[in-house]
Amino acid sequence: MTDPDAHAPLPADLLACHECDLLQTEPALAPGETARCVRCNAFLARNPPDSLDRTLALTFTAAVLYLIANLHPLVGLEMQGRRVEVSLLEAVHILWRNGVEPVAALVFVTAQLFPVLELSMILIVLLPLRLGRVSPRLATFYRLVRSVQPWGMVEVFLLGMLVSLVKLSHLATVILGTAFWATAALIVVLTLAARAFDTRLLWQLAPAEEGAR
Amino acid sequence: MTRPLTARAAGLLSCHVCGQLARSPLVPQQRLRCPRCDAPMHLRKPASITTTWALLVASVLLYIPANLLPMMTTASLMGSQEDTIMSGVVFLWESGSWPLAVVVFFASVMVPLLKILALIYLTASVQSRSRRRLLQRARLYRLVEFVGRWSMLDIYVITILVALVQFQGIATIQAGPAAVAFGAVVVLTMFAAMSFDPRLIWDPLSDSADPAHERPAHD
Asked: What value does the CA radius of gyration of chain A take, rounded to a whole number of Å?
């Protein structure tokens, strides 16, 4: 099956499914179309319209929302005339002093550090691309985004807040802070940004040496 | 019908970060980096089955204290009360918020358990080079990857409860030892899902070098 001419360049539209390894030709995608593996139906590629502009706009929006979410208290509680309001960092700090440091660290990393890293890395990669320049660190930053992505869990965190507030609503008056609503909006924007982003753009603009071994 | 041509059968490997194809090195031990994004390239994730098993065993062991030990301790004027994951679900159910009780039950009890069981099944079937229900197993793996993160729910619930209920003299909530075990289960099962290589599910189809096992690729 292997052709003897091992140095011939590989066809540019040839790709292997990342889930089942089947070789196939990438179909030409009209804007809005999605390609899936012919054998295992895994997602292969999408061609979102105006990918770069839309992703950048949405990521900027997300960054602003993130700033708001971190400058204001998330949630509060009023009980017998006393009022408590916490931000995410304060919550992590209280948890840390509570003696469950590993849990505090996990919450900090998944709800704060990694989402921030992911947002800033995406901006660092996309801004130069939009300006027509290819950053020499593009590949490094993109790999960082990819390894951080599964651990950013803002949407799970929001659901967690809702559950805990329902639990507390019997005992005290629950206050939803500005940061709560900013986080809710952030999740919508992040989802849209992820859908708008065509990863193939990165590599089309930054062509590699063809057929390298 | 011919056997499906995979990248591996064609002497190619694909980058797991950017999808770039490259030719396999002639010397198998030679380390290869992606010509496009410089990520280390592997034909399959290295030591996938062994790593997944090790992480699964650790998850199973920690799943026990995560469910038996108290997740949190509530101290109030009425006395102090310890809650496990299950008693938290029961509390939500009895207080009338049954939609949330269902959500928490699924995220905290069912998802980790089903995830561990699904990964055990996937790893065992890959190890025995099973050729059955390939598509279903591929879908199962996708599901495991997708829902895994939602088990972090209870960790966040504890975080907010502990942070907000700090009314000294009226009511305080402390995190219990199960929170650490439970957090570890979530992290370990996520790593287990990441170390599992779904391409191993399909590999038995392409390496039927033994003519006795020659069989059409598709049913």
From this structure: 22
